[in-house]
Amino acid sequence: MQTGRILLFLIAPIVSECCCGKNSNKERGFQQDTKHLYYRAVEGEIFMLPCNNRKVTWFRIGESPGEQKSSFECETKFFTDVTHSGNYTDGNGERFLHLHVVSKASLPCSEPDGESRVMLKLNAGERILCPGFNCSDNSQVTWYKDSKPVSEQNRESCSDNGLLLLCTVSEYDTGVFFCDRNIIERQVHWTYRRSVQVTVRAQIRANEPPHIVHRKTTEEVEIGHSHSLVCQVHFPFELNFSREVQWYKNPGGNMDNQIQLRVDKQELRQEWLPIDRHQVTATTLIDKVTTQHLRDTFTCVASNKAGTNNVTISLRRKIMGKHPCLVGYPVAFLVVVTVLALVLRRNWLELQLLTRTHCQYGKRLRDKEFDVFLSYDSSPTAAEVMIDSPTAELKAGCPLISAEPVGFELSRILEDCWGYRLCMTERDLLPGGVYRDDVESAIQRSQMVICVLSPDYLTNANTLYVLESGVQALLKTSIQKLLLIQTSHTPTGIAQVHSAVVHRAMKVLPSLVWNSGGTDGARSSFLKSLRQSLPSQQVDKGSHKQG
């Protein structure tokens, strides 16, 4: 094999001198029958079906019914197998292709290794030999680069006796070359197609020392754990590799007393880079890092025929974080849960009131004596007029509304116009009893509590107790709903409320706003919203009390 390579390079200048610069070419191909094409290929080699001046898909014929038809796009490369042998048609029935794939064992003579794969030097004159040419007596060969004949390319080249001479190799020559030989068997003209995979490299021999890719000169380690030292090296390409990568330990940092370390051969791997480089990664393992390793240094040495390069690194103890990942995530989770619990606890009253208000609303509480417990301040300063003229929202026959406090006017609308059973502290609570007990009892006997807020209402201890009792009853689901009616002067009295329960409840409880100076439309909207907020009326009104 080496003798053949020497002869190949000796005669290459002679061939180059004969054809380069003259654009000569002795390729003579033929195909006698344009309707029937006969091609022969070798098992395991790259093959490509012809297009013959137009794109075509070749479909295999003669397959069993129902079987999926094999097809190949022309100019598509694939590795052949003996099962590809058969007859193909272009789909229109105009042309037919007969493919015969022969096994390597059936070749007439043995072929040297490396004929189907060659490596060419960039910007040099190189030549390619058609595989199996020496086993044939046919000297007519047509060369193709992919699907285009080399003779039709705009380049200096020539072909003679199975050899293709490329006067100047370029990086675009990397790829697959096909050589077609014409043979005749039993009056059939066959095209014997072989392939050569070409790789172009910038140089055949190393012309510079290797380059070590190592950005860090210090690596962090954990005492008592294993640690891998990795050395990544870029080598200039060479035909016969002379690369070598090795790790050394320098005890105490003394490089004159180096100890060679074992490099795991399985980690000595090669990765191809662009046209003139390849990469080698060598790894050595420190089974257990000790404090002595922190005093030593480690050197990676890479060499080839052109020279040597090295890099030295040291180790330092890794500073562990206060919250490693395995601890940090649970701690973070606990912090989030704690914060959520605090927020939930802080706003627990508001959440309960919202839940009770929306979940119970619309449900009827049975066996209640009153529909509504109405609470308002009846002092003279609370005489904020509600309306002073009739409105369409009131039932026909209701008495005209006069200038009275809001709470009193509401009681007339609820009882006289809409027929609800009311409980009011000044009218329905018996004198002589304990005020707080009577209020709690009356609220328990009502479906709903309505509080008309005014500045005096929010500063009166008795009325504030009614509001607080209503909040507690709502939390215990003893009443259906607690509704606040705010007047135009209500905000001025909120700041004087010292009860934290009332302050928090007023943020979330449903409320309606009445403005005594509003228009008829505003009054109608208020009354409509009020009517929708009221509970369903009980059928039995036998115990209804008149004021």
Summarize the helices and strands and which ones pair or pack.
Blueprint: H1 2-19, E1 36-42, E2 46-48, E3 57-60, E4 71-73, E5 77-79, E6 86-89, E7 96-102, E8 117-121, E9 126-129, E10 141-145, E11 148-149, E12 157-160, E13 163-166, E14 175-185, E15 188-201, E16 211-213, E17 218-221, E18 227-236, E19 244-250, E20 259-260, E21 269-272, E22 277-286, H2 291-295, E23 297-304, E24 307-317, H3 325-346, H4 348-360, E25 370-375, H5 406-417, E26 422-424, H6 425-428, H7 435-444, E27 446-453, H8 461-475, E28 481-486, H9 490-494, H10 500-508, E29 511-513, H11 520-533
Parallel strand pairs: 1-7, 1-15, 8-15, 17-24, 25-26, 25-27, 27-28, 28-29
Antiparallel strand pairs: 2-5, 3-4, 3-6, 6-7, 9-13, 10-11, 10-14, 12-13, 14-15, 16-18, 18-22, 19-20, 19-23, 21-22, 23-24
Helix pairs in contact: 4-10, 7-8
Give a verbal description of the structure.
- The structure is a single chain.
- With 547 residues, the chain is an alpha/beta fold.
- The protein has eleven helices and 29 strands.
- Strands 1, 3, 4, 6, 7, 8, 10, 11, 14 and 15 form a ten-stranded mixed beta sheet that branches. A five-stranded mixed beta sheet has the order 17-24-23-19-20.
- Helix 4 packs across helix 10 (500-508) and helix 7 packs parallel to helix 8.
Query: Spans with pLDDT under 50 lasting ≥5 residues?
Result: 1-17, 382-390, 399-403, 540-547
Q: Give the N-terminus to C-terminus distance in angstroms.
A: 126 Å
Largest sheet: 10 strands, mixed
* Beta strand count: 29
- Cα gyration radius (Å): 50 Å
Q: Specify the number of helices.
A: 11
Query: Could you report the average pLDDT, rounded to the nearest whole number?
Result: 78
Query: Which of globular, elongated, flat, extended, rod-shaped describes the shape?
Result: elongated
**Percentage of residues assigned to helices:** 10-25%
The fraction of residues in strands falls at: 25-35%
The class by helix and strand makeup works out as alpha/beta
